[in-house]
Amino acid sequence: CGYATYTPQADGSVRVQNCCERLPNTTVKCSIGKAVVSYPDVFPLEGRFNVTFGGPPKNSNYWILDTDYDNYALIYYCKNLSESKSAEAAWVLSKQRTIHPSVQATVDGL
Predict the structure, then answer these.
(1) Fewest CB within a 10 Å sphere: which of 37, 39, 79, 105?
(2) Is the pLDDT of residue 26 over 90?
(3) Transmembrane stretches, by residue range (predicted)?
(4) Which sign does the torsion angle of CA 12, 5, 54, 46 carry?
(5) Kindly report the CA angle at 16 between 78 and 88, in degrees rounded to 5?
(6) What is the mean pLDDT of residues 7-33?
(7) How many whole angstroms separate alpha carbon 103 and alpha carbon 57?
(8) Mean pLDDT for the chain?
(9) Whole-prediction pTM
(10) pLDDT value at residue 98
(11) What is the 3-state secondary structure (H, E, C) of 8-38?
């Protein structure tokens, strides 16, 4: 099971701590990263972030596609691996370990 903690920093960035419990002995492994708004001068802000875990990303690699600000945020990630390959992923973030069926239906409909 994975979880993340986001902590605002004085410089305007966000400290990202991603952790996961590994079976069979449930040891916890965490990675620390940093998120900065990709286009801070755009208004309104677009929900695009450069997130790095040890090196600067080359472009906006995390996009907040949708959120209701209380129950969930839908995040999309894309990274170019070469000219012909990329890695994509999406996450549903929630403050709770499970989400209400109505929230799940909303996310599934996106």
Answers:
(1) 105
(2) no
(3) none
(4) negative
(5) 15
(6) 89
(7) 31
(8) 87
(9) 0.75
(10) 87
(11) ECCCCCEEEEEEEEECCCCEEEEEEEEEEEC
